[in-house]
C-alpha cells in the first residue's frame, strides 16, 4: 500500500500516475491544491499569490493542456520593475533604458567589467554566495540598483548567507549585446524563462488541481499527519486513524515530516529542524476602479515600498473580478517568527501603492484579505547544501519519498511538482 501525504500538485500527480497500484491520499485541508488553490470572496476570485504556468518540459505541458483542454489562455508577459520613480521592463539586466543616465552607466560599465575582468572563482555553486554570483555575473551596478535590494527584501537575509546553486534557470546571464540593447531601448527578442505564460480562463489557478480530481481516487480530507513510525511503517493522523504502508510519499514541508518521524536519528531530526525558509503575507485586494494597472505584475526593489511584488489577476482573466473593479495580489516577505497585524499591514500596503501611483487617495478598497503563508520560499544556504542529501537518503532508506517544492526543500515550479509526482509514480509502478 502506498500512502500519499498532501493533495497539492505533487501528491495529485503521484496519485494520477500511479494507476494500478493501491494507494490512499490524505490531505489536512478540506480541499485539494495546496498553495495552488483559488477562493472566492465578494465576487472576486483570488489565488494564493501569483501562480502562472511556464513550461520547460514538453511532457508536462502536454499533460496540463490535456487536463485543461480549451480552458487555458496564453499571455505575453507584461512585467515591470518600479524604481527611481519609473517603470522598466523585466528582467532588469536587459532593460535599463529609461532609468537615470548615471544608473544606466553604472549598470553597463559594471556588467562590462565582469567580461573584461572575469572572476577567478572555481568554487562550487553551493559554496559561492548568491551575492558573489550577482557581482561576478551581473556587476556592481546591477547589484546596487536591483539585484541586491530586491533579493534582500524577498529573502529577508543577507545575500552572503545564501548559496547560488539555484540561480541559473531563474536568472540567466545575458550576452553583452542584450545588455547594450537594453540600455539603448532596442528590443529584438524576449528574455528570461517566462516571456509568455498560460493561465486558466475561468476559476483561477485552482482549476489546475481540480482537473486532476476526476482521475484520482478518493481523498481523505481534514486528516493531518502527526506521527510516523518508520520501523513499523505506520502513519498516525490527528484524529487517531492509523494507516500501515509499504511506501510513504510525503509532499509536506520536510521539517514537518521529519518532526513526525519520531524514530529517526537525532542528527537527522536536528538537521531538518534547522532548515530555513521565508514566510510571505499574501494580501488580496479588490478595488472599485477599473484597470488600476495594465501590467501583469511589478517588482519593487526599493525599501520605501513594503512589498516586493504586486500582481493584477484581472489582467490574467477578467472572470476573476467584478465589472468596474480591479483586483491585486500584494506580497510582503517576513521572517516566520515575525508578525504584523493585518490592519497595520493593510495601511502600509495602501500607503506604498499610493506612493507608487497605483492607488489614488480616493480609491475604495472593497475587499481585503490577508493570508500568511508560513512556508513560502526555502533558503538555499550552506546548511541546506550540507544536510539535505543525507535527510532525503535516510528517509528513502526507510521507504519514505519526500517530493514537491517543500518536500524536497527547493525553489521549483508547479511544472516541477507535477513532474516529480509523475516520475516517482512511474518508478514505483516499475518495481
What does this structure look like?
The model has no long low-confidence stretch (mean pLDDT about 95). The chain is globular. Strand 6 and strand 7 form a beta hairpin. The chain folds into three domains: about 1-35 and about 60-65 and about 205-275 and about 380-430, FAD/NAD(P)-binding domain (3-Layer(bba) Sandwich); about 90-190, protoporphyrinogen ix oxidase, domain 3 (Orthogonal Bundle); about 275-380, Protoporphyrinogen oxidase, mitochondrial, domain 2 (Polyamine Oxidase, Chain A, domain 2), CATH 3.90.660.20. It contains twelve helices and 19 strands. The two termini are about 15 Å apart. The chain is of the alpha/beta class and about 425 residues long.
Compute the CA-based radius of gyration: 22 Å
CATH architecture of the largest domain: 3-Layer(bba) Sandwich
Supply the CATH superfamily name of the largest domain: FAD/NAD(P)-binding domain
Indicate the multimeric state.
Answer: single chain
Gross morphology? globular
The major beta sheet can be summarized as: 7 strands, mixed
User: What ranges have pLDDT less than 50 throughout 5 or more consecutive residues?
Assistant: none
What's the count of strands?
19
Instruction: Please tell me the total number of domains.
Output: 3
First-to-last CA distance: 13 Å
Number of helices: 12
**Per DSSP, what share of the residues sits in E-state strands of 2 or more residues?**
15-25%
Class of the largest domain in CATH?
Alpha Beta
Which characteristics define this entry?
431 residues; alpha/beta; FAD/NAD(P)-binding domain; protoporphyrinogen ix oxidase, domain 3; Polyamine Oxidase, Chain A, domain 2; 3 domains; seven-stranded mixed β-sheet; five-stranded parallel β-sheet; 19 strands; 32% helix; globular
Amino acid at each position: 500500500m502506498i500512502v500519499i501525504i498532501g493533495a497539492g500538485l505533487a501528491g495529485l500527480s503521484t496519485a494520477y500516475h500511479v494507476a494500478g497500484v493501491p494507494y490512499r491520499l490524505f490531505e489536512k485541508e478540506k480541499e485539494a491544491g495546496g498553495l495552488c488553490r483559488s477562493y472566492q470572496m465578494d465576487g472576486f476570485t483570488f489565488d494564493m499569490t501569483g501562480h502562472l504556468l511556464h513550461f520547460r518540459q514538453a511532457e508536462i505541458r502536454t499533460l496540463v493542456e490535456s487536463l485543461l483542454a480549451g480552458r487555458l489562455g496564453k499571455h505575453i508577459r507584461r512585467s515591470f520593475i518600479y524604481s527611481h520613480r519609473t517603470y522598466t521592463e523585466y528582467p532588469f539586466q536587459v532593460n535599463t533604458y529609461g532609468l537615470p543616465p548615471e544608473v544606466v552607466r553604472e549598470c553597463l560599465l559594471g556588467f562590462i567589467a565582469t567580461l573584461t575582468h572575469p572572476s577567478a572563482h572555481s568554487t562550487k555553486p553551493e559554496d559561492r554566495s548568491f551575492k558573489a554570483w550577482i557581482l561576478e555575473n551581473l556587476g556592481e551596478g546591477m547589484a546596487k540598483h536591483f539585484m541586491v535590494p530586491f533579493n534582500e527584501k524577498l529573502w529577508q537575509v543577507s545575500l552572503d548567507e545564501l548559496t547560488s546553486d539555484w540561480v541559473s534557470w531563474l536568472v540567466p546571464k545575458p550576452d553583452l549585446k542584450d545588455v547594450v540593447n537594453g540600455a539603448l531601448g532596442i528590443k529584438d527578442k524576449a528574455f528570461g524563462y517566462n516571456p509568455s505564460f498560460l493561465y486558466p480562463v475561468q476559476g483561477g489557478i485552482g482549476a489546475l488541481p481540480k482537473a486532476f480530481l476526476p482521475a484520482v481516487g478518493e481523498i481523505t480530507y481534514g486528516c493531518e499527519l502527526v506521527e510516523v513510525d518508520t520501523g513499523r511503517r505506520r502513519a498516525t493522523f490527528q484524529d487517531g486513524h492509523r494507516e500501515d504502508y509499504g511506501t510513504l510519499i510525503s509532499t509536506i514541508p520536510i521539517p514537518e515530516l521529519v518532526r513526525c518521524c519520531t524514530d529517526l536519528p537525532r542528527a537527522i531530526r536536528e538537521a531538518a529542524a534547522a532548515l530555513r525558509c521565508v514566510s510571505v503575507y499574501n494580501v488580496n485586494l479588490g478595488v472599485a476602479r477599473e484597470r488600476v494597472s495594465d501590467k501583469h505584475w511589478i517588482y519593487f526593489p526599493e525599501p520605501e515600498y513594503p512589498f516586493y511584488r504586486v500582481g493584477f489577476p484581472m489582467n490574467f482573466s477578467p472572470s476573476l473580478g467584478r465589472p468596474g473593479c480591479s483586483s491585486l495580489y500584494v506580497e510582503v516577505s517576513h521572517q516566520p517568527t515575525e508578525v504584523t497585524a493585518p490592519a497595520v499591514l493593510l495601511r502600509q500596503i495602501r500607503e506604498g501603492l499610493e506612493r507608487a501611483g497605483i492607488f489614488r487617495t480616493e480609491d475604495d478598497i472593497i475587499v481585503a484579505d490577508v493570508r500568511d503563508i508560513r512556508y513560502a520560499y526555502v533558503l538555499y544556504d550552506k546548511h541546506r547544501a550540507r544536510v539535505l542529501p543525507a535527510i532525503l537518503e535516510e528517509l528513502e532508506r526507510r521507504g519514505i519519498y519526500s517530493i514537491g517544492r517543500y518536500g524536497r526543500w527547493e525553489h521549483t515550479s508547479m511544472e516541477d511538482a507535477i513532474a516529480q509526482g509523475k516520475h516517482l509514480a512511474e518508478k514505483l509502478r516499475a518495481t
